[in-house]
Design a protein that fits this description.
Length: 116
């Protein structure tokens, strides 16, 4: 696993790669992952961010190319006093490393938190 972040002004960028080798003669042989994210603090109360993660799985003896799962998410967060509102729009393609439209997911998450 290797990763790095860099911050300048209101921007923060991050990137990470990882690899796991099983050296199996059958089943999953390896996973190769890459992820990046970027966030921007508009001001003390509002931030925007985007992240993407790609993961490739190689299978021993497979007659097809490795399948890559992909997840993307766009988020916005707003805080005012002790109240925070967070929204994330997320999509996943090839969930569980299956390349069919049934393996695609989209979702919206809304969270409201209160601090006392």
């Amino acid at each position: 696993v290797m990763g790095a972040t860099y911050a300048v002004g209101g921007f923060t960028l991050g990137y990470q790669i990882s690899e796991e080798n099983f050296n199996n003669s059958s089943g999953t042989q390896y996973y190769e992952n890459a992820a990046y994210g970027v966030s921007f603090a508009v001001n003390d109360d509002l931030s925007l961010s985007y992240g993407k993660h790609d993961s490739e799985r190689g299978v021993a003896g497979a007659t097809v190319a490795p399948i890559e799962a992909e997840a993307k998410s766009l988020q916005i967060a707003y805080s005012m006093g002790g109240v925070s509102v967070k929204i994330a729009e997320t999509s996943v393609d090839n969930q569980n490393y299956v390349s069919t439209t049934a393996a695609e997911r989209d979702g919206t998450t809304v969270a409201v938190t209160l601090a006392f």
